[in-house]
Amino acid sequence: MSRNQARVQAVSQIINRKPKEVTMPEPLSKIWASDVFNLAKMEEALSKNAFKAVKTTVQTGAPLDSATADVVAAAMKDWALSKGAKFFSHIFYPMTNATAEKHDGFIITNPDGNAITEFTGSLLIKGEPDGSSFPNGSLRMTNAARGYTAWDPTSPAYIMHTDNGATLMIPSVFMSWTGEALDKKIPLLRSNAAMNKAGQRVLSLMGETEIAALNSSCGAEQEYFLIDSNFANSRPDLLLAGRTLFGASPAKGQQFDDHYFAAIPERVQVFMQDLEDKLYRLGIPAKTHHNEVAPGQFEIAPYFEAANIASDHQQLLMTLLKLTAKRHGFVCLLHEKPFAGVNGSGKHVNWSVGNATQGNLLDPGSTPHDNINFLLFCGAVVRGVHLFGPLLRAVIASASNDHRLGANEAPPAILSVYLGDQLERVFNDIKEGKLLKSEVGGFMDLGLSQILKFERDPGDRNRTSPFAFTGNRFEFRAVGSSASVSGPLVAMNTMLADSLNWIADKLEAELATGTSKPVAAVKVLKELMEAHSNVIFGGDGYSAEWHRAAVEDRGLKNLPTSADALPAFREESVVKLFSSTGVLTPVELESRFEVYSEQYLLSIEVEAKLVVDMATTMIYPAAVEYLSQLASTASSMAALNITLDSGVASAVAQEANAMMAAVSTLSSALEVHDFDSTEAHMQYAAGTLRSLMVEVRGHADKLETLVSDDLWPLPKYSEMLFIK
């Protein structure tokens, strides 16, 4: 079957496709966390002493002894077997945005030749995957292969159901034989510990006596596209690169703003219900789903959870999005910009810090001017973003996210903080050495008796800010759809720990002179604002004026590409930040620069090779075939003394020749491998390779508008985005 025939057949199949038949979901009370070995199930299965020990570990991070681990393992095995599991796996998160797992059976044989099940504490605590075959940034050589997974008891085990059966999944960390972190979980746990230690210092200095362990929390809004699998399977670029490398803009895109929050298509609604049923069984608190801005784009948002668990759940959510979409005849695209000309997909990471005794420390309450603890923690965030903005840009850097940052739907690549009108006034007052009463938002009164009055927020939202305060948390809006939330959380926790330690040092010095706690706090915050208020901005982050002023007047960095951003991992201040807090050693940090740089280069090179291949073997032949048909028709018409306009044929020939000339240049550019440094190689990829890819695409997309529709080999935007 020719490519164009496959496309036509795909459209026919999709038009006649019905939503998948699914059973009505069971009540939430019955299915919630039914596949999770959480504290409630442990309490039923363990002795009182064993459960008390595990609960203390889960809630405080205290060590767990090996005898208790044996008891937990036995109970976990019995529970898993009762759920139909025959295998278990330590699931871990290497330095990619994917998960990794190695499955082992519970089965062993005894001397009599019979099969029995076994799962001991030692098997629960430790696994041993290959430590050199995962991205490691030269931490492990090929001949030094040993790596370890180790059970993280603070994140509950669960059962993963697939069509092939059930598996007990055990969230784990991943390290080398020499002890370096090879994953995204170890730095997250370390960063939370560093933030807790620094936060407790500040709270203690401010007179708090009962201080529970601090923990960061996360709620990540996940955007994604759904494309029918018939279309995706006809697009090599979607299958291999996750985005369309070619595609002319359709007559109708998102310009009518009629997709956002519109009625969800029936087939998509069925998919969402199926997905959420799976999420609820795994204890993932999916709370919101809706149509997003672009046609074919949707969003799911969970409720807040502890950062470590939220990070694990985010990885699981991305896995389930793809698996469930496949069951419903879709392909779920998590690429940040799968379609040019329409909104891309982000992952807005809502982040806060709190504990059981002081509550949410980023909640200002109704009178933020009186909430000194909040002002100190909020000020610490402002200082952190100002000092480590390039780091925040680096932890969201990827070849895919570069397509989105700075575009109309995503914040710019300049890290600034939005506080809102009320808080900005409070901090400006502090900068001037005073702390005045702030105004609340008041009430919304529409003058309609049937609409109840409600309290208005003290400030508007700013969708152009990459790092915005949104009432009781900060929203890091520039994170990419396909990214793990661990990297951003590690950076935010670590910079907060550093700033809290700075504040604690300043407070100690002030208090030692006999200054009262409130006065000392205001003095420290005044010094902080004088040094770091340049990062606070409440205007239009998309405007050209802001881009100029941010760099020239405020000294902020504009890092538009990952090639510009990733070297931040090597900056002396960043190395000191991570080493002083104990989150990452200099060697571990350097390994991350190497891994993420390599992933960036490989992504662009794969796309460039795909551009060459698709242009040469799919698009050019379609153009030539159309020219042949035009020539044949023109010859037949000439025999009848009818002259056809040759403008279209000339345009097709011109664009086809220009495209192939650009393809030749791109092919030659891919052969260049002599670079002085990784940084130089990345700049070459970001500049030369990408510009040549854009040039090839420009000609190809023009051909799509010229070549006869029945000859065009690739599903078009108008089909993929609108036919559901």
Automatic annotation (TrEMBL):
Task: Tell me which InterPro entries the record gives.
Answer: Gln-synt_C, Gln_synt_N, Gln_synth/guanido_kin_cat_dom, Gln_synth_cat_dom, Gln_synth_gly_rich_site, GS_Type-3, GSIII_N
Q: In what residue span(s) does the GS catalytic domain sit? A: 191-619
Instruction: Please state every residue range assigned to the domain named GS beta-grasp.
Output: 83-179
List the Pfam families hit by this protein, alphabetically: Gln-synt_C, Gln-synt_C-ter, GSIII_N
What does the sequence similarity comment in the record state about its family? Belongs to the glutamine synthetase family.
| Name of the protein this chain belongs to | Glutamine synthetase type III
Q: Which organism is it from?
A: Zhongshania marina
